[in-house]
Structures are given as structure tokens and as C-alpha cells.
Design goal:
By secondary structure, the chain is α/β, with parallel strands linked by helices. Helices cover 44% and strands 14% of the residues.
């Protein structure tokens, strides 16, 4: 069907195109009765404003950008990230903004996308995720003059404002739980090396007041890498009695790998997932996990970015700390086995 035009609305309402333009743009020049008749005609025809044309006159795109520099196959398996995007979209929809999502393979391509979007006036600002150590993106966005917010942080360089979660305190809560059960040999299967939140979690893991660092293996959030890392840890002579995983997918894969190694969870090995999800609640045994509201985290980040737009950005460059994840103990954690004992796996 052809998109209805101002002329179509004018014909249906029995007025001039100029009167339609005044009414649709909230300008004076038409009576209230005429304005109502025009709006009813527009609604009956299914008319929607042309946001591209409006952006040319208002210098606003009505859209927020999100570029994710991850392989698509790893993005799709992470429930946290999908819930985060859903929260962003919900908040933007409430504010009549769109979300422009773009997947790339590496950071240089992400920066190129920012430059292209800003030159073409495609977005009013961007959300930045997966901050790296020595990340070039904050400086690039500052040089562009492009409004941006870091979802996760805070930014060590202080360039981008952020909505952030205290990874160090969250890791301490996990270790407190495991140490309280009597575990001393605790391992960590992290996300990719180079991610700032991976480095922060690993640093907190190694500097916990309970003792020195345990073994750590970097993975990529997928089930295959979670299983590989678990098998490597369990093959060691002094294998861990507990493993902390940086997401739910790797934790469930670790549970399977432990069973294949002839170990029972939690009798021989305790497992904790950094992310809670349906997977953690339906697997057997159910998995102890850190629970955070990924949907609300996304909506909070989107709302904070929108508050930065305009000549007088609300809150300036201040960071916003999000709620600390809550540890939810379930069936996958228990006291460690006695020395030399191994419970037959299922």
C-alpha cells in the first residue's frame, strides 16, 4: 500500500495541505475543531511521521545506536545480553526513539560505524558495551563529539559516563559463600581476556581476603569453551573443588563436563554461575548463581543516555551505580569432599 501523504489527509478532512501541516506539527493557525478533524483523518489513514524528514529539520535522528563487536554466534547464546537489549528497546520505545543495532567483528569496525552514523545523522547517541583494557572507543567518541554512555564500567579514563555494577563486591560475595562452605581450591572460568569486566573480576578473585588466587582459564562465553576449560581444570593433579563461571552457558557446560569426568555436583565439585537464568533453574542440580535484572539494567542505561542528550545534559558525566547482584544459593554448591573421596557420577 502507498504511504499516506499530507495531501491525502487534507482531502479526507476537507482542508488545505497547509492546515494539515500546522495541525500535525502542533503549530497555531487552525482551530481546535479543525485540528481534531485532521488528527482523526490522519489516524484513519494510518499516517505516521516521516522521522528521516523530521530529523533533517530538527537535527534529531530519534534513534540510539548500539554496536556490538562480538561474533554473532556468541551473542545469541547469552540470555543476559538479549535481556539487556530488550530493556534498552523498551525504554526507547516509551520515549519514541528507535534502537539501531549493528554487529561487527572488531573494535576498529565499531569506531568506523560511529563515524558513519554521526556523519549521516543516523543516531543521537550510542550505548557502548564490553569496555576493553586500553580501549580506543571513549577517546574516539569524545573527538567526534558524539553523546555516549558506557553500559558497564566505570571508564578508567573518565571519558564516558556509565551505568555500572561493582564486579569486585559481587565476586567477593561468591567467594564468601564458597569459603563459608569450606572450599579452598576455587577456580574461575572467565570471559575473554582483554575485556575490562573480565580483568576486574579476575583481579577481585585473586585479591580476595580469603587467600591467594586460584587457577583461572579464559573462555569466550560459549558452551564449547566452558566445557574445554572445565576439562582442563579437572584434569589437574590438584583439581579445584569449586568453579565460578562468568556466565550461565559455560556453567551448564561445566556441569556436563564434570559428569563426564566421573564427578558428582555438588558432592565432588561445586559450581557457581555469574549470571542467573532459566538454564540455572531448570538444570539438575539447579545452579547457584548471581542474579541481576538485565532488563532493568538495559532500560536504566537507555534512560541515562537519553538524559545526556540536549544542550543541558541531566547529570553531566556522573556515573550511576546499578544494584549489586544478589547471590542465590541452590543445589550446585555444598561443602567440599573429604580428602581422597570421590562420589561416583551419575
Amino acid at each position: 500500500m502507498r504511504r499516506p501523504t499530507i495531501t491525502d489527509i487534507a482531502r479526507r478532512a476537507g482542508v488545505s495541505p497547509a492546515a494539515v501541516s500546522f495541525a500535525l506539527n502542533g503549530r497555531p493557525g487552525v482551530s481546535e475543531g479543525t485540528r481534531r478533524r485532521i488528527l482523526d483523518a490522519a489516524d484513519a489513514l494510518g499516517w505516521q511521521p516521516n522521522t528521516a524528514a523530521r530529523s533533517l529539520s530538527s537535527a534529531e535522528a530519534g534513534a540510539i545506536g548500539l554496536v556490538v563487536a562480538r561474533p554473532a554466534r556468541t551473542l545469541g547464546v547469552e540470555q543476559f545480553f538479549m535481556q539487556f537489549i530488550s530493556g534498552v528497546q523498551a525504554e526507547l520505545s516509551e520515549r519514541s526513539h528507535a534502537l539501531l543495532l549493528h554487529l561487527v567483528e572488531e573494535v576498529d569496525a565499531e569506531i568506523a560505524a560511529y563515524r558513519r552514523w554521526w556523519a549521516e545523522r543516523r543516531v543521537d547517541g550510542v550505548l557502548v558495551v564490553d569496555l576493553l583494557e586500553d580501549d580506543p572507543r571513549p577517546a574516539a567518541l569524545r573527538d567526534l563529539g558524539m553523546p555516549a554512555l558506557l553500559a558497564g564500567g566505570p571508564d578508567p579514563a573518565g571519558v564516558l559516563p556509565s551505568v555500572w555494577i561493582d564486579d569486585a563486591r559481587a565476586m567477593t560475595a561468591v567467594l564468601d559463600h564458597l569459603r563459608g562452605l569450606g572450599h579452598e581450591r576455587i577456580a574461575h572460568v572467565s570471559g575473554p581476556a582483554g575485556l575490562l569486566h573480565t580483568a576486574r573480576r579476575r583481579a577481585a578473585f585473586g585479591s580476595a581476603p580469603h587467600g591467594g588466587p586460584g587457577p583461572g582459564v579464559a573462555a569466550d562465553f560459549t558452551d564449547a569453551e566452558g566445557a574445554r576449560a572445565t576439562s582442563a581444570l579437572l584434569a589437574a593433579a590438584d583439581r579445584p573443588t569449586a568453579i565460578v563461571y562468568d556466565n550461565d552457558v559455560m556453567a551448564v557446560a561445566g556441569l556436563s563436563a564434570a559428569r563426564q569426568a566421573g564427578l558428582a555436583v555438588p558432592a565432588d565439585l561445586s559450581i557457581v554461575s555469574w549470571e542467573d537464568s532459566t538454564l540455572c533453574r531448570v538444570t539438575h542440580p539447579t545452579l547457584t548463581a548471581l542474579s541481576r535484572d538485565a532488563f532493568r539494567f538495559g532500560s536504566t542505561a537507555a534512560a541515562r543516555l537519553l538524559s545526556l542528550l540536549g544542550p543541558d545534559p541531566a547529570g553531566g558525566t556522573a556515573d550511576t551505580e546499578f544494584d549489586l547482584p544478589a547471590l542465590v544459593p541452590r543445589e550446585s554448591t555444598a561443602p567440599p569432599p573429604r580428602t581422597g573421596s570421590v562420589t561416583p557420577g551419575p
